Amino acid sequence: MPPPFRFDLQATDGAARTGVIHTPRGNIRTPAFMPVGTAATVKAMLPQSVRATGADILLGNTYHLMLRPTAERIANLGGLHRFMNWDGPILTDSGGFQVMSLASLRKLTEEGVRFSSHIDGSKHMLTPERSMEIQRLLGSDIVMAFDECPALPASDDVVEKSMQMSMRWAQRSRDAFGDRPGHALFGIMQGGVNKGLRQASAEALTGIGFDGYAVGGLAVGEGQEAMFGVLDYAPSFLPADKPRYLMGVGKPDDIVGAVQRGIDMMDCVLPSRSGRTGQAWTAMGAINLKNARHKDDPRPLEEGCTCPACTGYSRAYLHHVVKADEIIGSMLLTWHNLHYYQQLMAGLRAAIGVQSLDGFVAGFHAKRAAGDIEPL
Asked: Given 148, 195, 301, 353, which residue has the most CB atoms within 10 angstroms?
């Protein structure tokens, strides 16, 4: 019998929290940032390289994996962990967001969503029950309930109708998930930027009962100010003894602000996607390696950084391989970005642990305001 999924809250600083999520495949230190391995790979990275950045958990994508190579094939090959050579925890999203954003010819009904694949046009039906089946076949450690995520801005009527259906789908997800020791199911709060709808959604989810709770429906076009406005109250509607996951966030300042407001887990494609487009995230802000000012600069990308890009290569070299579209440019910048994100999370955890988060956040913003190091 595997050990149970458990969240231990260790310290708080205002609304911010630090703790440990215990899973049979390893512990997750919170606040946690989850690199995104959409199609069973974090692009331009080996699994052991991702682990070396400090990541405790990866995110996989139900929609993409159900289409290619299929969940059934992955299950026959031993599950997602063995398939992608990652022995730590994996969280899989439900597929609902990608169906809404990527698929064509969608038809949304109470049953679920019928859609055409963005890959080959093949027809598929995704329901709460099918989403739970796919995530079971993948062997996910943390499974997300199936929901609908409307794009913002949207009217309260549209958001409420969507939220209510997502709550019915949450119950169906709970029923289909069943009893799976060692695996966790998270419910997803919806409600847009409407406080009353957010509270109603949280009450419905806690009435069903989940192992953790996500704040969904943000980072979908509402802007940081509106997102923080929701996070000022939404986490408090959720049980304090369960992990709180903000989906699809985000930029470093988004992450810091979310942690200040009580979020425990986040994910985003930004650090890996930026690495493939010549952008580096640093304590001084974002740096564009395509810029010609780096072409003769012998200094490291970021002073004091211990990642391979910073310890072994100059800005001039990184500029060259980015401009030449060499694969090593994507590899090095992605490694750096993921390393920076994990160092940021470690700093947040340490600051919360000693109740010095305000000072840490002030220093974070001061460095970014000062900007990149002076040119030669």
From this structure: 301
Residue 129 shares a structural domain with residue 14: yes
pTM of the model: 0.97
Q: Is 157 a catalytic residue?
A: no
CATH number at residue 58: 3.20.20.105
The count of structural domains within the chain is 2
**Residue 120 pLDDT > 60, yes or no?**
yes
- Measured on CA atoms in the order 120, 124, 126, 131, is the torsion positive or negative? negative
Token representation of residue 240? 């304090």
- Evaluate whether residue 375 is within a structural domain: no
**Does residue 59 lie within any of the structural domains?**
yes
Distance CA(206)–CA(140), nearest Å, equals 22
Examine the domain organization and report whether 294 and 217 are in the same domain. no
In a domain, 100, yes or no: yes
Of the three residues 239, 268, 297, the one that is the final residue of a domain is 268
Confidence of residue 9 (pLDDT cuts 50, 70, 90): very high
- The answer to whether the bond into 3 is cis (omega within 30° of 0) is no
The answer as to whether 376 is a domain residue is no
Mean pLDDT value of segment 153-157: 91
Residues 320, 208: one domain?
A: no
CA-to-CA distance for 198 and 188, rounded, in angstroms? 11
**Do residues 192 and 159 lie in contact, with contact meaning Cβ atoms separated by under 8 Å?**
yes
Residues 264 and 279 in one domain: no
254 is catalytic: no
What is the C-alpha separation between 166 and 372, in angstroms, rounded? 44
- Report yes or no: 334 and 289 within 8 Å, Cβ to Cβ: no
Backbone angles phi, psi at 190, to 5 degrees: -125, -175
Upper half-sphere CA count for residue 162 (Cβ side, 13 Å)? 27
- Is the peptide bond prior to 24 cis by the omega test (within 30 degrees of 0)? no
How far apart, in whole angstroms, are the C-alpha atoms of residue 369 and residue 363?
A: 10
CA 145 from chain center: how many Å? 15
Catalytic residue among 13, 147, 211, 267: 267
Choosing from 212, 233, 268, the residue where a domain stops is 268
Cα 235 from chain centroid (whole Å): 17
Pick the catalytic residue: 13, 56, 93, 211?
93
Residues 148 and 165: beta-carbon distance below 8 Å: yes
Residue 298: domain span: 275-370
DSSP 8-state class, residue 24: T
